[in-house]
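Help needed: design a sequence for this.
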């Protein structure tokens, strides 16, 4: 079990600095995808949806992931631009929860990340009509082959329907496993992205 983290006794002023430290430690201990996070959105009927996505960037502005904007999560965020994230690092007995509004990344950010991906992933972004009904696997394979024939493996442009979204945190909770299920919980909160962070401890 991970040892007690002093942030619970003396909270840092900046929660992103704490997140940086925890993510760095997770990268050294998690067997797979320390940047995996559960993304929760809400559909038009008020039904929540959650799925795993990968964190592809984070700074003072927020937490970034990329997706097909025509996907279910893309459509739900277009209608209700608020989301929640949950990171769970089993090897460290830690969890981080995030809530906040969602905004689009810039075209330049999306282009830069798309260019950094492997050719197969870039072609897949053209081939997949994410979340739409697929008749059979052969249809998807044919779409991939068509994208490969059209663009090759070098200068593959970013599809107009593929970009990134940034969750701007208004609430970040750090959780660490404690003895006898007396866990440690520290919440950072602010009313708007321009406000200073306040902190409070929660009962487990």
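Sure. Designed sequence:
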């Amino acid at each position: 079990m991970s040892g007690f983290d002093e942030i619970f006794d003396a909270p840092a002023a900046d929660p992103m600095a704490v997140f940086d430290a925890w993510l760095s430690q997770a990268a050294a201990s998690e067997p797979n995808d320390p940047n995996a996070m559960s993304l929760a959105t809400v559909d038009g009927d008020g039904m929540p949806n959650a799925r795993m996505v990968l964190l592809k960037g984070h700074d003072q502005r927020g937490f970034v992931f990329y997706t097909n904007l025509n996907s279910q999560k893309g459509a739900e965020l277009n209608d209700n631009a608020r989301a929640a994230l949950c990171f769970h690092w089993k090897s460290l007995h830690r969890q981080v929860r995030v809530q906040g509004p969602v905004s689009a990344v810039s075209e330049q950010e999306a282009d830069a990340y798309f260019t950094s991906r492997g050719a197969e992933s870039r072609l897949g972004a053209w081939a997949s009509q994410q979340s739409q009904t697929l008749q059979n696997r052969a249809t998807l394979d044919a779409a991939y082959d068509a994208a490969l024939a059209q663009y090759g493996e070098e200068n593959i442009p970013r599809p107009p329907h593929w970009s990134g979204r940034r969750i701007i945190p208004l609430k970040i909770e750090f959780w660490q496993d404690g003895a006898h299920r007396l866990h440690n919980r520290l919440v950072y909160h602010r009313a708007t992205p321009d406000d200073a962070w306040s902190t409070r401890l929660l009962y487990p």
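The chain has one domain: 6-114+166-202.
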